[in-house]
Structure to design on (159 residues):
């Protein structure tokens, strides 16, 4: 997990996460902070083991840590965060020693994490699934006003 631990102290990572925190200071709905990124990583890793998907642990954690990196830009400028995350994520992954092939798979999963197409890779589908499962809608006081339809909200603990 050496390369993943480099991500968590990368200046660009810290800068964007700080901007996420600032932009969500008064947010009542789900946040896009480090606990969320780790929830996604751990749930994806559990599913990866349970379903025998064989995605490398470092890829899972790297994609999860970076998937909502630029959410603040969506809050403040309306930029789709799955798109805006790609550029800083590329720089961070290069600096942390991931290869071109690894980076391509991770960036693809980040880019598709909001709605992977039917033919998305198992890795991209894994990130999407873990992201959705990470939210505790069943304990949320804002669920009535959430932009997730009621039938898409998590009503029970799965992971
Ligand atoms: Fe997201
Ligand atoms: Fe997310």
């Amino acid at each position: 997990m050496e390369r993943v631990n480099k991500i968590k102290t990368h200046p660009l990572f810290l800068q964007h996460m700080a901007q996420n925190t600032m932009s969500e200071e008064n947010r009542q709905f789900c946040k896009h902070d480090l606990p969320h990124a780790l929830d996604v990583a751990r749930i994806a890793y559990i599913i990866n083991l349970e379903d025998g998907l064989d995605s490398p642990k470092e890829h899972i954690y790297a994609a999860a840590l970076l998937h909502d990196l630029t959410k603040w830009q969506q809050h403040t400028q309306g930029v789709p965060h799955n798109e805006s995350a790609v550029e800083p994520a590329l720089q961070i992954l290069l600096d942390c020693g991931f290869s071109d092939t690894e980076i391509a798979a991770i960036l693809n999963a980040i880019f598709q994490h909001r709605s992977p197409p039917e033919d998305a890779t198992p890795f991209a589908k894994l990130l999407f699934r873990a992201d959705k499962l990470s939210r505790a809608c069943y304990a949320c006081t804002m669920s009535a006003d959430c932009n997730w339809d009621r039938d898409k909200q998590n009503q029970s603990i799965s992971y």
